[in-house]
Fold each of these.
Amino acid sequence: MEAVLLQFMNGLDKGSAYALIALGLTLIFGTLGVVNFAHGALFMIGAFCAIVLNRIFSFSFETIDPTRTDFLGNPMKVSTPYVEKWFGTFGTSLIEYSVLWSIIFAIPVMIAVGIAMERGLIKYFYKRPHADQILVTFGLAIVLQEIIKQIFGANPIPNPAPSSFVGSVDVGVWLGMAEFTVVYPMWRLVYFVFALIVVGGVFAFLRYTTFGMVVRAGMADRETVGLLGIDIDKRFTAMFGLAAVITGVAGVMYTPILSPNYHMGMDFLVLCFVVVVVGGMGSLAGAVAAGFLLGIMQSFAAMSEVKDFLLGFSIDQVIIYLVAVVILLTRPRGLMGRKGMMEE
């Protein structure tokens, strides 16, 4: 029971990332009808926003501390971040909680990147075949990946969680189990709660605001909304920016779990496209549900008991694709797919 619960929580952790990326991907497809293979690069850019802000906060100068000496008896050089000199203890907290501050930093950056991507390139492919959209956005993803590689290097860059969230939580005690039965990393729980808040906020925005209702109407019947005198194109461009923000902040918060590297966007992209297809092209609820479902399935497939049952074969890397095949054979449009999506 303890192992099952632990794997279930691991699945929620993975599923949170899949759901957030797939949600942004589905927003773009549902509004603009574009298959965006550069979407994983947005996740990567968001992660490196956290790295950039941490480096800005950590920028320091050296001073001689006569009270401290090295092993030769010479006064030691001490590095002091500028934010600590300027802001004291608040400056220290800026460095300590740079991951959380990076969310604020990443929002305008991701809006700018998303709108630039849509206005500068993708708008010219709205009416082109999906194959053309895939090729051009995949090429854009490779370009962005190489730019990040040139700037930050090829090696992963660690970005630790705030010390307040380092360590583990005894989840078993919360559920009435014995102490230390089920212990889970605190930041992974934070990420899961963060994902729920973002998903809930997006759905509330689309359902209860005038802007969101117009966008949903445009997704269902773009021509009719345009005939009402509403500039739906500007609203859809704004939704591209929103999708970039969702994916970017997902990348920011994931940095303490997975050290950012230049190919992390591609690593998540293929999996999240499978999530979108399984959930149903154009279905936001389907993307979220499929994200958590496939994350949980992948986590359980990694259990040693499953590997032993399969005579030593490991299927955790392919289980998502196996589940996708089964679902698409029984439900060709996915779990919650809409008629007409990707069927022309």
Amino acid sequence: MRSFDYSKLAEKAWNMDIVNLVAKIHECKGRQDLFFRQKPVKLDRLVEIAKIQSTEASNKIEGIVTTSTRMKQLFAEKTRPRNRDEDEIMGYRDVLNTIHESYEYIPVRPSYILQLHRDLLKKAGFSYGGHFKSAQNYINETRPDGTSVTRFVPVSPADTPEAVERLCNAYEQASASEQIDALILIPAFICDFLCIHPFNDGNGRMSRLLTLLLLYKSGYNVGKYISIEKQIEKTKDRYYYVLQQIDLGWHEEKNDPAPFIRYMLQVILACYTEFEERVGLMSEHGQGGTAYDIVKHYALEKIGKFTSTDVLAHCPSVSRSSALAALKTLTEEGLVIRKGSGRGTFYVRADSR
């Protein structure tokens, strides 16, 4: 069985682009921490938006979907799930809430991973929720001609409990040693988790939830405010591509996690960048700036179409009613143009014509 020796990561000479990505994220984390200390701005709306986007995006990657309207109603508890997809979506929401609220008290142990998996699938009523896989699973690839081939065979069901135990122990030891940057160690752990593929179902969703958990425990909590899962879903073609590379030679301990590490670092950095853009609006106008000023700044810097939902997401210090009023004023002033109607309503800058 694979040894899960993460000490090799400390000895590896990483490419400069990976080193630079790690350094940039460290800088962003420092600025984020400073922002929270010096500007106690209320970010509740960012948190709620990120939760919805994370739940929607992570499930969408797996083909589990509902409408945006239903998603908002489900999160607001104004309706109940209508089908199995919505049951699974709500299961993800529950686990995400648990991680948001209690990550400090969730150790990286098999028993806790099993409990998170149980809660992920509880609402859908799957009997295998909270249990390691009972049958061999396979990573298949569909060729251009439509035929399917097995590209990788994960760890067998019999060996899975021991493999996950070793994986968790190796991560905890490596984390405690502080010889490997968490931004390198976490994606490496997720690579191994996916290659073990410990569950009958839910491996991808669990890998993304565990990514958030480990990042939060290491002090990188940007995922609370900007959805990491949404960034992955937006770049899912590249996500699938790097996932196809991580298992080559995995059983022989010859696989290279660098492509997945590089990809995840790019995702994390993109989230920090978006966070800074959003709180930048709050900081710039936080001392006496009006809702109109904040919305106007966003609208006149925006290229292409945007909706009232976009305005609310990017101007979290502005209430919904104030944002809509500001958009109405900007439209009346001729600075933005309203197009469409009903749910299809969007806005563009007047100077874009």
Amino acid sequence: MTTVEGVEARGTQHCETTALGVLLRHEGLDLSEPMLFGLGSGLSFVYWDGKAMDFPFLGGRVKPFELTRNLADRLGLELLVRETSSPRRAWENVAGPVDAGRPVGLQLDSHHLDYFTSKVHFGGHVVALYGYDERDAFLVDTEQQGGAVSTSRDSLARARAARGPMTARHRSFTLAVPENAPSPEAGIVPAVTACAHAFLHPPIANLGHRGIEKAGKLVRTWLRRADDPGRDLPQAAALMEKAGTGGALFRNLYRDFLAECAASLDSRHLRTGHRLYAQAAGLWTDVAALVARAGTSGDERCLVEAGAVLGDIARVERDAMRALSLLGDGASAG
């Protein structure tokens, strides 16, 4: 059996930040999960529906692996990404770093992993691999999936080779922290303002605060849109609260990131953003409860109320991001 020494196999709430935490702690950089998420400008929103979809998708973060690239750019990390169409080369790309004593991040389809509790296809799942033997691979996944887990190498190969939405070509990656890397604190202002700009100025109406407003109008139709409301609506609610989001569709993570930033950066704009995201997080949890109740009861009034709450969230998050977009201004202190 080959394993990387000194790996802290600690699972957290979200898959990509869990893997990033494993890789960076091994490099001597220990950041909280909210800080990893926030420095990676991870918060977003997308409402997506289409003829080929069984049910609308609500996403609360940037697309898979964008968070990792953002974080590496922000902190001056050395990010080495490898992709290939060859399963043999894909395994060599993983085994080589592990043999050399370095854990590796993998993007794959979680459906094929032996230990995964929810057998749905998700090609944007990210794990950290820190060891293997002839039969199994040893991974770190989220806390809810078990933290330190194992899966057969055959299942891992299938997960990495999967094709479909959000999948990558056997993507693997490593991170290194150079000696002259900037401090995490130096990345706070550019990370927050970049996230705010993207949220406030989305290229299409499905994204950012415009997407939340659109969701508020369309959620009222979900009982008619669903093939099986008793299944689809509670599942949508569970995805907001439990599917690696940290609760409240990632708003809890961003709220806690802003609170951590406020401890080291004195800014009224930051304090305003934190206060409003604390409010938004609670409202998102209310929406999830209303959607779940609509599915189990068939009462459309729950969805009408959820739509009204989503309208409030759109305004709250827009105001929060407007405040946070001013974080780099000289007038922000105080």
Amino acid sequence: MRVLVLLAALLCGLPSLAANRCDTAVPTAMAEVGEVRLAYQSVGRVADPTLLLVMGIGGQLIDWPDEVVQALCAQGFRVIRFDNRDAGLSTWVGQAPSANLTYQALRYRLGLEVSAPYGLRDMAGDALGLMDRLGIQRFHVLGASMGGMIAQHLADLAPQRVSSLTLVMTSSGAQGLPAPSPALLALLTRREADSRAQAIEQQADLLAALGSPAVADDRRELLAQARSAYDRAFNPEGVQRQLLAILAEPSRVALLERLQVPTLVVHGTADPLLPVMHGVHVAAHIKGSQLRLIPGLAHRFQAAFKAPLLGAVLPYLAAHRHPVGLATL
């Protein structure tokens, strides 16, 4: 087999082999994890250290840009991206939530208890269960937005298994941090679409609102992205349940302060959903963490910011790819 690989390298060139190794057009597999079934993709060599990507509210694994996944894989990682419960092709938990979101959001603002069908720690348990099913003992975690909140719990649940933590555009959930505008929250929770076309327009509106004011979005690209997401899976009730899970979460400051995992926090200065102080607050409460602020970055993976995002994340991951004294499987 080694001879065949060497011959292929000579005939096709090593860059071609690297490109094939990091091909994102891999089949989506399914894993039974406790009470849920998770859809996931594995990109890269099984023998390489694993990097688990955890997506934000309502997001699907396809919302991780292919070129970002390829860049992470090219660093020598096996990259796994998956659909959280209540998103994409993974298990949709149940009926539409009976709780009124506006009322529950008000209770959250007042510091009162919020009811939810499941919590972020349950979602972290899903991610850990996926690693168990795949036989992966140690792994790196990169979480964005709600995915960063889930990643915080994951590192707390299994600190001996998480080699490094990268938290992008996320929050500690502490009271008193700047809140998003009511208009943006309305866009996030608006799901009363009468048709596919209307739902796609609404999603494009949300994507535009989450983008940087310094970047002029191409409406056709936003619509194409919204169309791909809708046609793969459209689950507005799942978004509401995930939002309830966030609102029901108490402050994670105590959790952050006990973390011992090497951590990088990346946040944009123009984030309209989780303003920049959310990222600063997270980094301030994780001992030894690094903070990288990206000027103009908002709350989306826009093309104009992929280079600075990768410029912040790739060197950090490369430095922690093989933890000293630990075997990454």
